[in-house]
Structures are given as structure tokens and as C-alpha cells.
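Homework help board

Subject: predicted structure for assignment chain

Our instructor gave us this sequence and asked us to write out the predicted structure in C-alpha cell form, then describe one feature. I got the C-alpha cells but I'm not sure how to describe them. Can anyone check?
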Amino acid sequence: MKRLFMSVILFWFATLSFASNPAYEKAMQQAISQLEEAASPETYQAAANQFQRIAQVEQDEWLPLYYASYAYIIQAARSGGAEQKDQSLDQAQALLDKAKLINPAESELVTLQGYLHMIRVTVDPASRGPELAGKATQTLAQAVQMNPDNPRAFLLLGQMQYGTAQFFKSNTSEACGLIGQAVAKFKQMDSQDTLMPHWGEATAQAAQQRCSP
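My C-alpha cell output:
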């Protein structure tokens, strides 16, 4: 009876905690929708600003900082000049560093760090590739080890290995294997938590098609 009573109390507290901040959940869902609809550097900036406003209120939550950092990374990927790209990536790194202080064991944050390194390489591949390409690969491999169910970690690691294999004109089978695993893991992904990252599935499917003979 005592054990049953404690189970009921724990369930009640878990339910209370989940429902304790509907304003945060609503604000996050709206900001995520804004991010998904973004299509220009300006709209990615607006989405990043929105997540940063949420982060200022919810200082114990890592997700607003994660999404703000992600918005800046995509902004960098779609910007023109090298200086503008680096500015966006610097902002992304600062936000990501704050998120990692809140939850250093989160695979999604390590995955995003690897993604940031990848985009940083594209700013100047000749000078940055020798240092950052390996750093990106190591970081993404770490994310895979931290959470073998994270499809984004497999996707980005596969993309890194695929690009490296193409550059050196070597076999892409290992990279394509990782991309195939990413596609499978996206299909198995739990979609109940709408606030957690869920981007990347379309990219994984497109990458898998490039792997097909």
C-alpha cells in the first residue's frame, strides 16, 4: 500500500510538472512554426530573436537556446559573404555554449555543435577543412555514442563522411550506411514531444537517394 501511494504521488508530481508551464509550451510551438516557415536570412534572424526572448524567461531550459543557435546556423548556411556567415556562426556558438551549460549530456546539442563545425568549414574549405572537418566528424561520432537513436547525428556524420569520400574519390559505402541508418531512425522517432528537434528527415531521404546506384 505504501509503495502504491508513493507511485501515485510521483505520477501526480510528474503530471503537475508537465502541465505547469503551458505558456512556455505555446510560445515554443509558435516559435518552432516560425522557424520552419523561415526562408531567408531575415526570417531566420526573426526566429532566432523569438527563441532568445523565450530563453531570457525560461533560463533553465536548453531548447530555446538550441533552436536559436540552429536558426543562426541555417542563416549562415544561406548567407552570402564569408564575414556574414562567420558572424552568424559566432552568435550560434555563443548560444550553444549556454545551452550546453544547462544540459551538457544532451546528444542534440553535441550534434548541433558538429553541424556548426560543418558549416564553418564551408566558409573557407581550403584553410578550415584540415582542422575543422576532423573536428566535426569527431563531434558527430561523439553524439552518436551519446544517443544511438538520434537520427540527426547519424545523418550529419554520414554527410561528412560522404563529402570526404567524394573529395578523395574513395568508397562511400560506409557513409551511405550511416545515412541509411538515419532514415530508419527518423521513421522510428517518437513524435509525441513536439518541442524536441525533428528536422532532417527530408534531407536524409534526399541523401539516401544520392547513395542509390
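Reply (TA_rk): Your C-alpha cells look well-formed. For the description, you could write something like this. Residues 124 and 141 are 23 Å apart (CA to CA). That's the kind of observation they're looking for.
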